Amino acid sequence: MYFEYFGLNEAPFRITPHTDFFFAGANRGATLEALIYAILNDQGIVRVTGEVGSGKTMLCRMLAESLPEHVDTIYLANPLLSRDEIIYALADELQLKLAAERPGALLGALQAHLIERHAAGRHVVALIDEAHAMPPDTLEQIRLLSNLETSRDKLLQIVLFGQPELDEMLARADMRQLRDRITHSFRLEPLVRDDVAEYIDFRMRAAGYRGPTVFSPAAIRRLARASQGLTRRVNILADKSLLAAFAANSHQVTAEHVKAAVRDTDAPSPSRGSAASLALGGRGYRRAWAARSGRAVVADQPSGQRCDPRRRGPGHRRGTAADAGPGSGGPVAAGNRGRKAGSAGCTGRRPDRYPARPGTRACRCH
Q1: 257 occurs within a structural domain
Q2: Which domain-ending residue is among 292, 321, 347?
């Protein structure tokens, strides 16, 4: 919608893990390099944790694309697997057909296949996303899989990606054997304000933008505070802020645009996420979007605002609910009778957009 307006080739703040938009700042690039080193040097089990929306899945996808050609990558996105199902899942990814045998035989068949791949010069790594949701029995199977090795090399490298709950689970006494096999632990911290500014600018330019900085310093401060430095939330708020700036015919995103985006995100409404609701700034204004779409422009007037007394003509009077007799239809009808009697009939509110309730005033002067 706003791509051409800002000179963009594609959406800069999509929430899907598009690796062309991987941000190497805020220690993300260094973590990626460390993960590659750990995998290529048989470092056993590696753990990566971070809050919801901190960029774990993006890092996982980027890791899979960055590994050398001789590394066979297995990506498991479903953590709710039993201890036997995870072996079948690994076998399926390796195109190995396993017969329905006892668990020990399944593990032995998988080990034999991994030895063949190792002899052919292949490395195998399993990237397990959402590992914090794994059942304890499945995590125990992960420990047993990490035992598959030759006299010199690991046959299967394992990287666990999860939320902080994974740390809590591994801290349990019954998980101490698995915990002792974890050789590297990385934590994705939320972005600080300067990182948020670099992140937004990087993604804008990765999407094709070539102009001056779009987000004002005040907008960055508000966005960093509202997002708490979590990249997924930064993406959501930045996208809505651009939409609000576009609807307001502004080429710079201001703190007010971010404020409207935050309110639209935190307070769902029937029009949540629409360009119109963001252009209104979340305060009940009815304006701008009609002008941008070629429709008649409606003047700014906050919800519930009284009519301007300077617009009242001769004979202008205020009607009330008391003016409406039985069967009159309420104060709106009373205002209409005032107009028929030769007055402007202003009763204080606009019934075409703000319908009057019994006992309230309604306006027909516009």
Answers
A1: yes
A2: 292
Radius of gyration of the chain (CA): 30
- 156 and 238 co-located in one domain: no
Q: Are residues 43 and 160 both part of a single domain?
A: yes
Residue 173: DSSP 8-state: G
What is the distance between the alpha carbons of residues 77 and 131, in angstroms, rounded to a whole number? Answer: 9
Do 46 and 177 sit in the same domain of this protein?
yes
CA atoms within 13 A on the CB side of 36: 17
User: Which strands form 123-128's sheet, in the order they lie side by side?
Assistant: 71-76, 123-128, 157-162, 45-50, 182-188
Give the closest residue to 290 by CA, choosing from 274, 308, 306: 274
Q: How far apart are CA 179 and CA 80, in angstroms?
A: 20
| Separation between Cα atoms, residue 142 and residue 99, nearest integer Å | 21
- Closest among 300, 305, 303 to 279, alpha carbons compared: 300
The pLDDT of residue 339 is above 80: no
Domain boundary among 139, 169, 188: 188
If one counts every other C-beta atom within 10 angstroms of the C-beta of residue 248, the result is: 21
Domain, as residue range, for 172? 27-188
Chain segment 141-197, per-residue pLDDT in tens = 999 999 999 888 999 999 999 999 999 999 999 999 999 999 999 999 999 999 999
Q: Is residue 316 part of a domain?
A: yes
What phi, psi does 46 have (nearest 5°)?
-120, 140
Q: Is the pLDDT of residue 118 over 90?
A: yes
Give the tens place of pLDDT for each residue, 65-76.
Answer: 999 999 999 999
Q: Does one domain contain both 325 and 207?
A: no
SS3 of 226, please? helix
Total tally of structural domains belonging to the chain: 3
Q: What are 233-249's pLDDT values in tens digits? A: 999 999 999 999 999 99
Percentage, residues of the chain above pLDDT 70: 72
Domain co-membership, 104 together with 116: yes
- The owner of tokens 């991994």 is 114
